[in-house]
Amino acid sequence: MNQTYSENQTSIKEFMLLGFVNIKQGKSFLFILFLTMYIICLLGNSLIIAVILLNQTLHSPMYFFLGNLSFLDICYISVTVPKMSADIWAESPSISFVGCAAQMYFLLTLEGAEGFLLASMALDRYFAICRPLNYTRLMSKWTCLQMAATSWICGFLNASLHTTLTFHLSYCKSNGISHFFCDIPPLLSISCSDTSVNEAALFTVGVFVGLSPFFFTLVSYALILHAILSKQQKRQSHKAISTCVSHLTVVILFYGSAIFTYFRPTSSYSLERDQLVGVLYNILTPTFNPLIYSLRNKEVKLAMRRLMIREHSVLETRLFQNN
């Protein structure tokens, strides 16, 4: 019996992704939807990165973090959506054991890094609005680089811990993952090992990686709103409040989905409900981030116009020279 159990532990070479198995109709709609949102995310975030790099006026801490967030969102959506789109048409969608570990590692890295980046952006806005006289000193170039590097390092450490713990478990019950992609809760739910250590680590580390940046971000924006309302300048206050509310929408959408996914017992995992939440924070958040953070920003829109005018002028000059 021990020999059979050992064989079962090592027999799984791949996992089956069961998210689309029960969907018989509407596959074309889902494919077009995922592909459209993926393209929007790539184009929107790539445009923001290009505009920030090509415009000296946007070389400030706020846009440095925004560029990092745009790059992160491109990577984030690319980890899951291309594979999901292909799996829609597969009769038996699968992913190798190593491929599943790699997908989960990068997913957790990017989730952790985004949480700290959102907190860094909130701190930057707090210093800009509440401590304007000391802003240049507090948010120096070196400080911004350290904050961004810390965000990515925390993401890597978070992913390393959970990926190692998750893929050291035994999977002898089933190799079917009730999700579109590899994530911690659905993998823990099919393990035949004791997952109490994994769940304890998920909660403990999650307090630092998830809840701490979330509450820090909320407090920062609360202080910003208090400072704005104290100035009693209605026109400027309305604009600033609108910007803060937009930013908070992204924050709550991202953190709310992540907290719902990781801060509850594995036994409460539900296929339909968790698939919906997975789509919410893996597709919608990266797609809408450029719209909320940048395309409503006058400086970014002005920089885009200047870039388009400059490129149009260059194109006209080349055509004139060729003629």
Descriptive report:
The structure is a single chain. The protein has 11 helices and 3 strands. It is mostly helical and 323 residues long. The protein has helices at residues 2-10, 27-54, 61-87, 97-130, 135-138, 141-166, 184-189, 196-231, 234-262, 271-293, 298-322, and strands at residues 14-17, 94-96, 176-177. The model is unreliable at 1-10 (pLDDT under 50). It starts with a helix and ends with a helix.
Strand adjacency order, main sheet: 2-1-3
Choose one word for the global shape: globular
Uncertain regions spanning at least 5 consecutive residues: 1-10
**Strand proportion:** under 5%
Terminal CA distance reads: 83 Å
The percent of residues in helical segments reads: over 70%
> H/E element string?
HEHHEHHHEHHHHH
Query: How large is the radius of gyration?
Result: 22 Å
- Largest β sheet strand count, sense and barrel closure: 3 strands, mixed
**Please, what is the average pLDDT?**
81
The count of helical stretches stands at 11
* Strand-pairing-aware structural class: mainly alpha
Total beta strand runs: 3
Write the layout of secondary structure elements.
Elements: H1 2-10, E1 14-17, H2 27-54, H3 61-87, E2 94-96, H4 97-130, H5 135-138, H6 141-166, E3 176-177, H7 184-189, H8 196-231, H9 234-262, H10 271-293, H11 298-322
Parallel strand pairs: 1-3
Antiparallel strand pairs: 1-2
Features:
three-stranded mixed beta sheet; disordered N terminus; mainly alpha; 323 residues
Short description:
With 323 residues, this protein is an all-alpha fold.
